[in-house]
Write a structure and sequence with these properties.
The protein is an alpha/beta fold. The protein has one domain: Alpha-Beta Barrel (TIM Barrel). It is built from 8 helices and 11 strands. The chain binds zinc ion (2 copies).
Length: 243
């Protein structure tokens, strides 16, 4: 039977240098529960090292965690990658790390904290996660698809680090699964402003616990999986976005 799932497919954790330490698994899940979110996408910049902690912490909470990443392409375009299992997410991370130059400067950008499900600090990532990879956008998308993930262009209404902001348009040959809008505009406004033939998702891009669920997408699905979301984005077998 199909039922609605409230999904916030784009949140950051304390691994992203631009977040506060507050974005720990427990605080993220407490806030998501309060907002009645069914599915959370973990999308730290160029890394998925905190996805497993969230997956483990959410086990008995009735919240589905999609491991993922917000990849920065060579063109400085942010793209979300979401998966059903951690193994494929780690394969993407391995490739991203090989193509991500530079080291983090904690003073300038902030700390990149790796935690476990008990909120224990396991270490600090020293890569320049806020930087751009050397991977062209079309290759990022192909790679994510080859690993059975979905690709969503991040916050297309924003000037910086969005596909439209960086390239000025959306190239026709890209096989994106959806376009995401930030909480700054409504779905109705986006439909008028962006006349592209792609489904539009809304998510919070939360960097603070209270922002989780500030914007979300409701999907009609059989269960909370990326495979089901893929069907909904293509309007297959009754699965769909209901916003
Ligand atoms: Zn972004
Ligand atoms: Zn983001």
């Amino acid at each position: 039977m199909l039922r609605p799932f409230k999904a916030d497919l784009h949140i950051h954790t304390c691994l992203s240098p631009c977040t506060e330490l507050d974005m720990s698994p427990k605080k993220i899940l407490t806030s998501a529960k309060k907002k009645e979110i069914d599915i959370l996408g973990i999308c730290d910049h160029n890394s998925t090292e905190n996805s497993l902690a969230l997956m483990n912490a959410a086990k008995n909470m009735n919240i589905k965690i999609f491991p993922g990443m917000e990849v920065t392409s060579q063109e400085e375009v942010h793209v979300l990658a979401l998966f059903d299992d951690i193994e494929n997410t780690l394969k993407l991370q391995e490739f991203v790390y090989k193509n991500l130059p530079g080291e983090n400067d904690e003073e300038a950008f902030g700390m990149q904290v790796i935690v476990n499900e008990k909120e224990e600090v396991l270490g600090f990532n020293n890569k320049l996660l806020i930087g751009a990879t050397a991977i062209p956008l079309n290759e990022v998308i192909q790679l994510i698809h080859s690993l059975d993930g979905i690709t969503i262009a991040s916050h297309i209404d924003r000037e910086s680090f969005s596909i439209i902001g960086q390239l000025g348009f959306i190239p026709e040959n890209l096989e994106l699964d959806a376009l995401e809008i930030s909480p700054n505009i409504t779905f109705e406004e986006a439909k008028k402003r962006f006349e592209y033939n792609y489904p539009i998702t809304c998510s919070s891009d939360a960097h603070y616990p209270d922002d989780i669920g500030k914007s979300y997408t409701t999907f009609l699905l059989k269960n909370g999986t990326v495979a089901e979301i893929k069907k909904a984005l293509k309007n297959e077998e009754g699965r769909k976005l209901i916003h």
